[in-house]
Design goal:
Elements (H helix, E strand, L loop, with lengths): L4 H15 L8 H14 L5 H9 L6 H10 L11 H19 L6 E6 L5 H15 L4 H5 L2 E7 L2 H9 L1 E2 L1 H4 L5 H7 E4 L2 E4 L1 H4 L2 E5 L12 E6 L8 H14 E9 L12 E6 L2 E6 L3
Parallel strand pairs: 1-2, 1-7, 2-6, 7-8
Antiparallel strand pairs: 3-5, 4-5, 8-10, 9-10
Bound molecules: S-adenosylmethionine.
């Protein structure tokens, strides 16, 4: 089904309003390929007919949810870009261990924001478990790790919460040593160990209308998410993250993303071959 210029403009505005995603001028093919079957399943013959059906549904309705599932880009892999996980393992987790030992720290709170099908939060959980499990008095540390993983798409969150992956997904970045230690094969699925799964809680959060997040985080991963957002939303979101990070908190963005120019609340850290951000001292 072909989309007209006028229909494209209607959908472009709707997507920006509801998800913050800013589609360029030349993404007509994307809507044609991603929405074709949803439009047909809903008995609509044109994009216009579907648009009004969607517009008249409430944001909580199934149609709205299915629409968001269809238009979001959920590309992900294990230990993506490697360096953020190296920094966790070699710098931040050893530091948090010392802080726990000296009584300065009660918990380790990490947010994987825009977690897709779970590869990012589970990669963090594997590194955390592997590091703290090898320490003396490991249970003191393991009980203090909380990883919140959120996404706008309920479809990816339901895949993530199962913790089951096929060969294709596993082959995208999972090191053999972690596959051997933390997965079991059952027919054509790799099942993630419960002790890793239980470190992660999944929740639906839309950055366009975020509900109040009461927690303070030590680390936020917001990787390969804002690349799709308007400048206005990038600014609002990155600024707001400085308020929910602890005073010594860190922000990791994707390699093609930057906080510079969007927020003045962060200092850049350039080390171990990586760029990431630290909340500025006030
Ligand atoms: C490309 S994936 C990145 C996954 C992971 N962070 C990584 O780097 O591999 C981007 C994710 O952001 C989510 N997303 C897009 N718009 C969002 C919004 N407005 N609120 C919350 N999540 C959103 C998508 O559903 C998708 O799963």
């Amino acid at each position: 089904m072909k989309i007209t210029d006028q229909e494209y403009s209607l959908f472009k505005n709707f997507i920006k309003e509801h998800c913050g995603i800013s589609l360029g001028e030349n993404k007509k093919y994307l809507l044609e390929t991603r929405l074709g079957s949803l439009i047909a399943q809903n008995g609509c013959k044109t994009f216009t007919e579907f648009y009004y059906k969607l517009k008249n549904s409430t944001p909580r309705a199934d149609l709205h949810t299915l629409f968001i599932d269809s238009i979001t880009t959920n590309e992900t892999l294990w230990f993506r870009d490697k360096y953020p996980f190296k920094i966790l393992e070699e710098k931040l987790f050893p530091q948090y261990k010392e802080e726990i030992l000296s009584g300065q720290r009660k918990e380790i709170n990490i947010w994987s924001a825009g977690c897709s099908t779970g590869q990012e939060p589970y990669s963090i959980a594997i590194i955390a478990f592997d590091f703290f499990n090898s320490q003396k008095d490991k249970n003191i540390y393991l009980g203090k790790i909380n990883i919140l993983a959120t996404d706008i798409s309920n479809r990816v969150l339901s895949i993530a919460s199962l913790g089951k992956y096929d060969d294709i997904a596993i082959n995208r970045g999972m090191p053999q040593k972690y596959l051997d230690s933390y997965f079991k094969k059952d027919k054509n699925q790799w099942i993630l160990d419960e002790k890793i799964k239980k470190l992660v809680q999944f929740k639906t959060i839309n950055f366009k209308n975020p509900t109040n997040i009461q927690k303070t985080f030590d680390i936020i991963f917001l990787r390969n998410v804002i690349i799709y957002f308007s400048d206005e939303l990038k600014q609002k979101l990155i600024d707001s993250l400085a308020n929910i990070l602890s005073p010594k908190g860190f922000l990791f963005l994707g390699t093609g993303e930057t906080a510079s120019g969007y927020s003045s609340k962060f200092d850049i850290i350039d080390e171990m071959g990586a760029i990431y951000y630290k909340v500025k001292k006030s």
